[in-house]
Write a structure and sequence with these properties.
By secondary structure, the chain is α+β, with helices and mostly antiparallel strands. The protein is built from three helices and 17 strands. Helices cover 17% and strands 47% of the residues.
Length: 231
């Protein structure tokens, strides 16, 4: 097995060896698990199942076969075996009016670790700010990484007096997801030579809606780095 790094979250996207990859696909078939397919030219996912194996190819069944037949270029496939998550990046083929992909396609498995952090890609749109709960003076910021339990902010011009252990309020909106406004505890502070302040933050007193939004952001990042590792 070889491991892929997702930002600074550690090595937890593991490329499976051929026999392990086949076992994962066979278990997916035996358990009748869903495969979620997304094409690079179409953001709408298609759900399918493995119909059978033949000639080193995996044949799929779905009510949306006509849509799969139109998929061009690379397609990402996600499936679950129990709580384990797997990703495939491959090209679909049409063989005898059926849709299939090559059995040798690379598969990576998500190996979950406690609170892995994911770097926010530079090209992803985002807004962020930090402020004192008492003063309500906002300082613009940028989220550099995030996990289920916290995040890291870079604040170019910090005008607030913030110390380690302080509870502050933060706001951020990342990529396509909804805005999050919540409290956080400052776990570390570092000033860069250019004057930017780096804040290591731990979320606190999260509402259910906040947790859901953070989970959505992390899930976007997991998918992003899983697909990237397959390229």
């Amino acid at each position: 097995m070889s491991a892929a790094n997702t930002g600074n979250a550690g090595e937890f996207l593991v490329e499976l060896e051929e026999k392990d990859a086949f076992l994962a696909l066979h278990n997916c078939f035996t358990l009748n698990s869903d495969l979620i397919l997304k094409n690079e030219a179409d953001p709408n996912p298609v759900s399918a199942k493995i119909q059978f194996f033949a000639d080193k190819k995996i044949f799929l069944e779905t009510p949306q076969l006509d849509k799969l037949a139109l998929f061009q270029g690379q397609t990402s496939i996600k499936f679950f075996i129990g709580t384990e998550v797997y990703f495939i990046k491959t090209s679909l083929e049409v063989v005898d009016d059926q849709i299939c992909f090559d059995q040798s396609s690379k598969i990576v498995q998500l190996r979950r670790r406690k609170e892995p952090r994911y770097n926010i890609p530079e090209k992803w749109n985002q807004t962020a700010a930090v402020w004192s709960i008492e003063l309500r003076i906002k300082n613009l910021a940028r989220v550099t990484d995030i996990s289920y339990g916290g995040c890291r902010f870079e604040v170019p011009k910090l005008s607030l007096s913030i110390n380690k252990g302080d509870q502050i309020r933060i706001q951020y909106q990342i990529f396509k997801r909804a805005d999050v406004v919540c409290d956080a505890i400052v776990r570390f502070i570092m000033r860069k030579p250019n004057g930017t302040t780096v804040l290591g933050l731990e979320f606190t007193q999260l509402q259910k809606s906040h947790k859901s939004r953070i989970n959505n952001i992390v899930e976007d990042l997991v998918n992003h780095y899983a697909v990237k590792s397959l390229l």
